[in-house]
Specification:
This protein is of the alpha/beta class and about 200 residues long. The chain has one domain: Rossmann fold (3-Layer(aba) Sandwich), CATH 3.40.50.300. The strands form two sheets. Strands 6-7-8-3-9 form a five-stranded parallel beta sheet, sandwiched between helices. The protein has a four-stranded antiparallel beta sheet with strand order 2-1-4-5, with helices on one face. A hairpin with a 2-residue loop joins β1 and β2. α3 crosses α5 and α4 crosses α5.
Length: about 200
């Protein structure tokens, strides 16, 4: 059973301390909500957990091993999505999705990609350049990526940005399915989501 632990994480930027002694854990079927006002360090904390930013103190542990010792195995298990959608304007929704999946080394089929785009409401727009899509539609390309990537651990930074009510409901269903399959997640969000998080980490309090 997969398990993630953050032990005593701390980080500063210059003279400013963003957070200190942040400790939490999540096991298969659970997700953790990162909450706090803008500038409180949620994005930095998420990047520290992912091993993409250096923590001044503490360690991230995946299945009993510090990620610095098993970096390749950990990164293979992680789907990280930052607060920006990471979409290339000149590529279509389908091409953006293919590029994101290929970058992760995930093998899929054209039929599976079309199915994922249909699932998030972009099937009829899959060949339209991303620059012609709305902000919410661009965000849905990222949701299609969630549908295709088998990574057990999701690390997501404000995944509901620009999504309407239907988009939020779709994400909640995808999260519930991910957890039901034994996945786990750490999500930075200002929103109240169903299913409820197993625990919350509040920064800037």
């Amino acid at each position: 059973m997969n398990r993630l632990e953050a032990r005593g994480l701390g980080c500063s930027r210059g003279a400013a301390r963003l957070f200190r002694d942040v400790t939490f854990e999540a096991s298969a079927g659970e997700w953790v909500a990162l909450r706090g006002p803008n500038g409180s360090g949620k994005t930095t904390l998420l990047r520290c957990v992912a091993g993409l930013a250096h923590a001044d103190a503490g360690v991230t542990v995946w299945n009993g091993e510090a990620i610095a010792r098993e970096r390749e195995a950990f990164h293979a298990a992680v789907l990280y999505a930052g607060h920006l959608p990471g979409i290339k304007d000149d590529l279509s929704a389908e091409e953006n999705l293919h590029a994101a999946i290929a970058l992760r080394g995930v093998t899929t089929t054209a039929e599976a990609m079309r199915g994922a785009l249909d699932q998030v409401g972009l099937g009829a727009r899959r060949r339209i350049p991303a620059r012609k899509l709305s902000a919410g539609q661009r965000r849905r390309i990222g949701l299609a990526r969630l549908a295709l990537d088998p990574a057990p651990l999701w690390l997501l930074d404000e995944p509901l940005t620009a999504l309407d009510g239907q988009g939020q409901a779709l994400f909640e269903r995808m999260l519930a399915s991910h957890l039901a399959r034994g996945g786990l997640a750490v999500i930075s969000t200002h929103h109240t989501l169903d299913p409820r998080p197993a625990r919350e980490v509040r920064l800037g309090a």
